[in-house]
Specification:
This protein is mainly alpha-helical. Helix content is 80%, strand content 0%.
């Protein structure tokens, strides 16, 4: 779960900073992790936050 949270945080920070290098790889690695449904939902909350940041910053 720590790896999942770390990857989700990296994706979220990349969205906030508009630095998308590595995001595709981090998403691939996150998807490949062996997580329970509950763990995956918790990790994906960070991804929703990243999408919200992108929308919030849009003109």
């Amino acid at each position: 779960m720590d790896v999942a949270r770390t990857l989700a945080t990296l994706i979220e920070l990349a969205a906030a900073l508009e630095e998308t290098d590595g995001v595709a790889e981090w998403r691939r690695r996150l998807a490949a992790l062996d997580l329970t449904d509950a763990e995956r939902r918790r990790a994906e909350e960070g991804l929703r936050n990243a999408e919200d940041l992108r929308l919030w910053d849009a003109p």
